[in-house]
Every structure is written in C-alpha cells, then in structure tokens.
Amino acid sequence: MKKVIKIFGALLIATAFMTSCGTSQPENKYLGKIPGVVQKHNKERERILEAQNKAKSPEEYAKLKKQLSEHDKELNNWMTGYGSSGEIKPNIPFEVAGEFPYIVDEVGFIINGSVVEVTFLLTTKENFKVQIPRQKITLYFIGLDSNNSPIVLSAMVAGMYDIREALPAGSKITLKGIWNKDHLSFLQDLASIRIISQNQYKEFNKGKR
User: Fold this and answer.
1) 13: left (phi over 0), alpha (psi -120 to 50) or beta
2) Residues ≥6 apart with Cβ < 8 Å to 4
C-alpha cells in the first residue's frame, strides 16, 4: 500500500511539473516526454541564471538561487515519477561499430533522478585479468537519430568499475553510462545506440570541453 501511495505521489508531481512546462511535449519513441521536458527545463534554467547574474541586491540573488534549486528539484521529482509511469521503453535497438572483446546482448534505460542511465548487458569473449587493483572495463557509445546520424553531445562512456577478480570468457557483465540534462535535451529524435571505439569517441568529442 505504501509503495502504491509513493508511486501515486510521484505521478502527481510529474503531472504538476508537466503542466508548468506546457502540456504539448514532443515524445521520443524510447524516452517519451523526457527530451522535450528537459529542453524546456534547460531554457528556463538559463533564464533564471541570467537573471541571477544581473541581480541588483544580495536578497534578489538569494531569491533567484532558491528558485534555481527548486527548479532543478522539480525536474528530479518529475523524472522519478515519469520513470515509474511505464512510459519509458526498457530497451533500445543498437549496433556495434567495430570488434570488441565482448558481445553486446542488450541495451536499456534506467531513470535515476534527473539522469538516464544507459545499461549495456555484455558477454565477455576473452578472459579478463585484473592487473591493477580495482580495474575497470569501459565501453563508448553514441546516440543515433532516425536517419542513423550521430546526435550531438550524445557520445559517452559506460563502465564497470572496481573489478577485483578475474572474469572468465563467457561472463555476463553490466556496464553503465549516463545521459544528464545537458545531453537529454538533444535526444528528441533518438532512434538507436551505436557502440563505438575509443578513437571514434574522441573524434566525436573533439573540441568539447
């Protein structure tokens, strides 16, 4: 019963935030309303920051700072509620561009506060030896639009960290990457994900700070 009340409360928050962002939001096939809502959130956030920079008194600055904090909290609450609503597809199509020491079995999403965790379920092709304490396995990925073109600011790193024991070939592992609100606003036309090499990742992020 408590769980039902908690989910219902989160959905009420989601509805209220959607109303404040406008009722007509473009939807993505996999992320639903998230990219459109985040885009509007970011525009309003920029407006508040600009007003904060022009504040003429400490009181006005403090008021805008509080407003900014509440604005960010609203997005966090909305995404938590939306993630519980069943509107997000748990998996997305993917392609692998290159040869890697693992097989990609599945790519999916988990909503965690105001970020989307991109999860990669893999099967290792080779034995993985731990050569240094707390070794890691990384994977690079980028979002593709409906024309199969790379989406700006979507190239990210997924990882499995703090590995302390060797993994034999055939091991099932999960790597996680993150798209935060700076990335999500560009994903309205997200259609699939491409697993890429480190060199490709660096090329996509060339000039990015």
Assistant:
1) alpha
2) none
Domain boundary assignment for the chain: 2-83, 94-204
Domain 94-204, CATH among 1.20.58, 1.25.10, 2.60.40, 3.40.1130:
2.60.40
For residues 173 and 175, give the distance between their C-alpha atoms in angstroms, rounded to a whole number.
Answer: 7
Q: Which residue has the tokens 């240094």?
A: 132
What pairs with residue 145 in β-bridges?
Answer: none
State the Cα angle at 73 between 161 and 144, rounded to 5°. 55
**Which is it for strands 115-124 and 172-179: parallel, antiparallel or unpaired?**
antiparallel
pLDDT tens track, the chain, 209 positions: 444 444 344 444 444 454 445 446 679 999 999 999 999 999 999 999 999 999 999 999 999 999 999 999 999 999 999 998 888 889 999 999 999 999 999 999 999 999 999 999 999 999 998 877 778 899 999 999 999 999 999 999 999 988 888 899 999 999 999 999 999 999 999 999 999 999 999 999 886 65
Which two tokens mark 87? 């509107």
Largest CA distance in the chain: 63
Structure tokens at 116: 């989307």
Query: SS3 for 195?
Result: strand
